[in-house]
Design a protein that fits this description.
There is one protein chain. The chain has about 140 residues and is mainly alpha-helical. The protein has a domain at about 20-95 and about 120-140. Helices cover about 60% and strands about 0% of the residues. It has helices at about 20-25, 30-50, 60-90, 95-110, 125-135. The longest helix is centred in the middle third of the chain and has 31 residues, at about 60-90. It starts with 18 loop residues before the first helix and ends in a 12-residue tail after the last helix. InterPro entries: NADH-Q_oxidrdct_subunit, NADH-UbQ_OxRdtase_su21_C_fun, NADH-UbQ_OxRdtase_su21_N.
Length: about 140
């Protein structure tokens, strides 16, 4: 079953990029978004605590700050991952990624390796996996797995 064609302003690199590839292709701006979201969680919590104090103990405030820090870290990662994926899909400017992808795939082809790795799955299961994961990054806010 062919992948649905979507309009893209830039060249499409891969409609179903592997997790490690998306991480490897992250830009410094993605890491900045990730760090900003990580800091925003505890920062906003602390600000709200200053504006409208809960009169909770210092230990409870520390625990809450740790929790909001973790939630900000997770949310920032998902946002950065989604931004990086959008460049694979051609929805955002991706000239650096196109160059890196061409160099990576050319090196694999020159070494005689398959471009996207080997699999032990049957063609049917490959199709099932592709249908379940293509564009799955768009739902990270609902199903963060």
């Amino acid at each position: 079953m062919p992948v649905k064609e979507t309009p893209a302003a830039y060249p499409v690199i891969d409609t179903d990029p592997h997790f490690t590839r998306v991480i490897r292709y992250m830009r410094p701006s993605d890491y900045a978004v990730w760090g900003g979201a990580t800091a925003a969680g505890p920062g906003l919590f602390w600000l709200y605590e200053q504006v409208d104090p809960t009169k909770a103990s210092r230990a409870a405030i520390r625990s809450s700050l740790r929790l909001t820090g973790f939630l900000g870290f997770a949310a920032g990662f998902m946002l950065a991952y989604q931004n990086s994926s959008a460049r694979f899909w051609g929805w955002k400017e991706n000239s650096a990624e196109v160059t890196k992808d061409q160099a990576e795939l050319s090196a694999r082809a020159a070494a005689g390796q398959p471009l996207y790795g080997e699999t032990e799955l049957t063609p049917y299961l490959q199709g099932v996996a592709a249908r379940n994961s293509t564009f799955s990054q768009l739902k990270l806010h609902a199903f963060p797995w």
